[in-house]
Automatic annotation (TrEMBL):
PANTHER family: GLUCOKINASE REGULATORY PROTEIN (PTHR10088:SF4). The keyword Transferase does not apply. This is SIS domain-containing protein. It comes from the Eukaryota. Residues 88-281, 318-496 form the SIS domain. It comes from Ataeniobius toweri. InterPro entries: GKRP_SIS_2, Glucokinase_regulatory_CS, MURQ/GCKR, SIS_dom, SIS_dom_sf. The keyword Nucleotidyltransferase does not apply.
């Protein structure tokens, strides 16, 4: 009875409390909290899901006087952005022996690549040398497929930074970790702190510093928290910089690819655009300029979510495909396509998705995107991301049950879009498009493409955009929001979310292991030790933990977990019912919709407790 009472208690509590109050989920950092706005997102129809996501995204731009935390538009955040922009400008002015390095894990690393590529491209266009480099935990393979384990490796982080900046005399290092949690990034920041003559560290993340992860990192004398504490001291003398506004909990708890990813893109684009304008058009870097630029991103949210119905229709189409075991394909051109790839790759750890559930393809593939390690197609089927891979591997088997989404803009080769659209239309009528154009510009073939598609989200952007902000950046953020909404919503409709928790997450690194344990505690009401035990039993597929298993380290656990499906649901069913692993597995097979399986167990548990 205690179990149910606890779970019910948490539900009632969460629904009524503001996440900013001190007693709201007090043991969790903001980035891991559950958002009261999305408590019932798993039961909502597509149109309500979109509205909830809109409300969550709007929290990023909330300006509250006397708020407990720094926010995106806070004074201190704008000031830090100005200072970092000035450092970038210095490097632009005197690029010799200097480098800017952006680094992160998962989506944060992918965005590091995205922003680096865009900035360097712009510099090359102006005949300026490229000054920016990126690092992603797990190397380029992780750009388009989920490689979560390296996130736990601080040594690999430090070594990759050392390697990329070999011989440089001045390095501005920007480490991104939304949760202030990744050991990989902590290792790099610590490396910077050891070599202050060369490195200036900047940390981008979305928790207050006291909530930085403080768990010991095996083999290290530092934690993320201790590194941040040192940086805070150095920040007073501008020898380090912290950019850590709080965005409010994610719509799906812990899913930092959403608001965390969007804010990362916004903050870094503001920094780089300001530095670029200062260096090439002598526009001074000012506090007001920075704030104005940030605010203009808020308008992107308004324009994007003004098409709620269209986004909901796309979500429903994608949800239907996933529900019947078919897939969603993003077909794109240029850099909008990279956002499709980023969106698709994160579905695996977040929803336990198969890589075929949501796939992204972009024109010429890796070569076009300019990754460091070149042609990732050689690394196996999962990395085939060019249109040619789509034509060979996916098109022949496409049916009306699959959803295809074209992502393109007025500045892409619209002839090519029309050509591919015709080929796709021969196989499926379930084709849709997201198209960005500026007011007054129309592409001749757009009418034909529209006719081929069952629906088109047509975003028309005003010609006169704020001077500091490129149209391209607007289109990109808008596309990211739409894709995040569609892929998240589709998985919700498939039953991969319970309340607003990712119930079927992969347990492939220490952060995800802790998240899974917390979730089990929360949903079962059992103590941590029992939940961890159940998690291990599910990982190793045993009913009794052996001495051997108990002595294995966390890395072995998370490595083993890669091979098992539905680890968390399995552990939860065992915890709630006392079933053996086999029994729990067959229970989950009978109810393949994870949310329904979990709910059935919770119901049974309630009845059982009631009858006692
Ligand atoms: O390990 C999984 C993950 O949570 C990804 O979903 C995320 O993109 C990545 O870690 C990085 O997280 P952070 O930016 O908080 O370090």
């Amino acid at each position: 009875m205690a179990t149910v009472a606890k779970t019910e208690g948490i539900k009632a509590f969460s629904a009524t409390h503001d996440w900013e109050s001190a007693d709201y989920e007090p043991t969790l950092p903001v980035s891991e909290m559950s958002n009261p706005l999305t408590r019932n997102i798993d039961r909502a129809p597509a149109s309500s899901i979109v509205k909830m996501l809109q409300a969550c995204d709007a929290q990023m731009f909330q300006e509250k006087s006397g708020a407990a935390y720094e926010r995106l538009l806070s004074d201190q955040v704008a000031k830090s952005l100005m200072e970092v922009a000035k450092r970038v400008q210095l490097i632009l002015k005197n690029p010799q022996d200097s480098l800017i390095v952006l680094s992160g894990c998962g989506t944060s690393g992918r965005l590091a690549f995205f922003i680096t590529s865009g900035f360097n491209r712009e510099l090359r266009r102006l005949n300026h040398s490229a000054v920016c480099s990126y690092i992603i935990a797990g190397g380029d393979r992780a750009l388009f497929s989920s490689q979560e384990a390296t996130e736990d490796d601080p040594i690999s982080g430090a070594l990759s930074l050392k390697k990329v900046s070999e011989g440089k005399k001045r390095v501005l290092f920007i480490g991104i970790s939304c949760g202030l949690s990744a050991p990989f990034v902590a290792g790099q920041l610590d490396f910077c702190l050891q070599h202050p003559d060369v490195y200036t560290p900047v940390l981008v993340g979305f928790n207050p510093t006291h909530q930085a992860r403080n768990e010991p990192i095996p083999g290290c004398t530092f934690t993320f928290h201790s590194v941040v504490t040192k940086m805070r001291e150095l920040a007073k003398m501008q020898k380090a910089f912290l950019i850590n506004p709080v965005l409010g909990p994610e719509a799906i708890s812990g899913s930092s690819r959403m608001k965390g990813g969007s804010a990362t893109k916004i903050l870094l684009e503001v920094v780089f655009s300001a530095a670029h304008a200062a260096n090439f058009s002598r526009t001074p870097i000012t506090y007001n300029g920075i704030l104005q630029h940030m605010r203009s991103y808020g308008k992107v949210l308004d324009i994007t979510y003004s098409q709620t119905e269209g986004i909901a229709a796309l979500m429903e189409a994608a949800g239907r495909s996933l529900q019947c075991g078919r897939g969603l394909c993003y077909l794109s051109w240029g850099f909008l396509g990279l956002l499709g790839l980023i969106d698709a790759s994160e579905c695996k750890p977040t929803f336990g998705a198969d890589y075929k559930d949501i796939q992204g393809f972009v024109g010429g593939g890796c070569k076009e995107l300019g990754s460091k390690e070149g042609d990732l197609n050689l690394m196996g089927a999962e990395s085939g991301i060019a249109h040619i891979d789509f034509l060979h591997n996916v098109l022949p088997c496409l049916t009306d049950k699959d959803t295809v989404l074209l992502l393109y803009s007025h500045s892409d080769d619209v002839d090519e879009v029309a050509k591919l659209a015709r080929r796709v239309r021969e196989k499926t009528s379930n084709m849709h498009a997201v198209y960005h154009q500026t007011d007054g510009d129309t592409a001749a073939q757009q009418g034909e493409i529209n006719k081929l598609c069952s629906s088109t989200l047509n975003f028309i952007w005003p010609q006169a955009t704020p001077a500091s902000m490129g149209l391209q950046h607007m289109w990109e953020l808008s596309t990211k929001l739409v894709l995040n909404a569609v892929s998240t919503g589709a998985h919700i409709l498939k039953g991969k979310v319970y309340q607003n928790y990712m119930i079927d997450l992969q347990v492939t690194n220490s952060k995800l292991y802790c998240r899974a344990t917390c979730l089990l505690q929360r949903l079962s009401g059992h103590p941590k030790s029992l939940c961890e035990e159940a998690l291990l039993k599910a990982i190793y597929q045993v009913d009794k933990l052996t001495e051997d298993i108990m002595t294995c380290n966390l890395t072995t656990h998370t490595h083993t977990a890669r091979k098992v499906k539905k680890v968390v649901p399995l552990a939860l069913v065992c915890l709630l019912t006392g079933y053996s692993i086999k029994e729990a597995q067959s229970h989950l097979e009978q109810k393949p919709i994870v949310r329904e399986a979990v709910e059935a167990c919770l119901r049974e548990q309630t009845l059982f407790s009631g009858s006692l």
